[in-house]
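Lecture notes, structural biology module. Today: joint structure prediction for complexes of two components.
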Amino acid sequence: MSLTNLLNRFKTVSAHPTPSESLALSQLAPSVLNLSITDTPEQWVLYESLLISTLRTGDDTSAQLILQRLADRFGNDNARIMALQGIYDECTATNQAQLDEVLKNYTEVLKDDPTNIPVAKRRITLLHHLSKKSEAISALTTLIDLNPTDAESWAQLAQYYFEISMYPQAIYCLEEVLLILPNAYNTHARLGEIHLVAAESINNSGSKEVVEKLEASLRWYLRAVELCDGYLRGYYGVKLVTGKLLDSKISTAYRTIPEEKVNKLNSVATVQLNDIVTGSEKGKKAFIGYDSAEVAAVKELLEATT
Amino acid sequence: MAQVVGQQILRDPALFYWILFPITIVMILTGVLRHYATLLLQSAPKPLEAKAIREQKNYLHGLNLRTNANQIPLSSFTSRKNYLVQAFQSGTFLKDPDASNKPPANPMSDPNGMETMMNMMKGNMMMIVPQTVIMGWINAFFSGFVIMKLPFPLTIRFKSMLQSGVMTRDMDVRWVSSLSWYFLCLFGLRPVFTFILGNDNAADQTMAQVQQMNPQANTQQLFGPGQDPAKMYLAEAENLEVMVQHEFVLDGIVDRILARV
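The predicted structure, tokenised, for the full assembly:
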């Protein structure tokens, strides 16, 4: 297979591949490694992706070889190579002590060069993984102070805050992501989700605050849907939130969106979700690429509400 | 001045092999050589230190807030605005906050500026030296030769361009002198270099000239050597402060979606 074919093969797989997908990718290792090295950016991108896949499936020998070739080309002191080496070390660590060792390494590197962003990010991930959540958050805020225009950092920080139920902070972080990537519809949907979870975390259901949060959630979901037609998560959210808003427990006095509109939105979402479910079950061309787990969740929601 | 139709000059065919060919070959070879020499001489851009990155990225943060303000609710925008305006005005993000009162530093004394200038100088030398040498070579050996006839007619204006080094008033414009052939090669070999060396080559001097025009375009420096970051921060703070119009994109989203179906 040629380089372009292999690259396309990798591109078809989502960012969170299933184990079988990862295995399929990792089994491409021999054909990738047997290609002559042309020193094009594409080839090194391919190497990087393959490294991650092989580490996912436990093919450490191939991973070692890939890493070696990358290091030979870019040098061991290249920031990105250091981070990849770190990933390799983390993956091959078998016990707590070895992970601590890797962490210590990261800290050493960062002491010498605080601008080594890839390694800083590895360190934060590892801290979080080692359940040092507050340390991870403070390290991430330092990184953001250094570079507040990095959407990835903000999104990660939002995730960390969300995990410890600090919803206003998580919302703040996601808004920052929107300032950098104003059309990121997945971030809009995520904001809707966090508003929804925040609304549900309030005990006094039916209070003004809950209604406000639910309506905010609905609006974010709608924006996601506006930016991306056929966005499953967006419509799922619209359906879910409108369902909650129509719930009799919620007092109408606090509502700003009239009930008939909520009703209409609910039916719009139902129609769209129905389309997606039937379309992807029949394997229609326009509905390829939906996550089967997500489609199953939609089906469940539709069955529960009818 | 009457054009002599079908003007004929008897040329020794050796002119073709011993002047036209050598000049072209030499020009291509020097281009390739210059490309590799430039690559060798160019020092890798020095990574910025943490404080410089912080200074630049926080400035961009302000810009982002201003351009995409409508993406976030008014309350979120106002709190961010207040924070950033205050921070920008007090110079929290400046690399060295004390420098704001001093007159702008001489760009020559700034080590980073020196680096860029050194690189520019190297690039210039790579252009000037071979050009001078080749032009001297052509002037010494081939000056005054008419080496080829263009297969198409041209207007009189091209005379000075195509027949430099040959002082013949009545000669048809289609005749090209050796010195002019050199100039044509100098400016016209770009596709050849792209073919040999790839798109991003340093052999072509027109590209290099464009780069010299705006040296900041492809370096990491956001603030040029002469600019004062403190002043830019103050200006940005002012820009943020005067922003009164805020239209949240989520306003009216319900009706927009309903109108769509």
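Point to remember: DSSP finds 16 helices and no strands in chain A.
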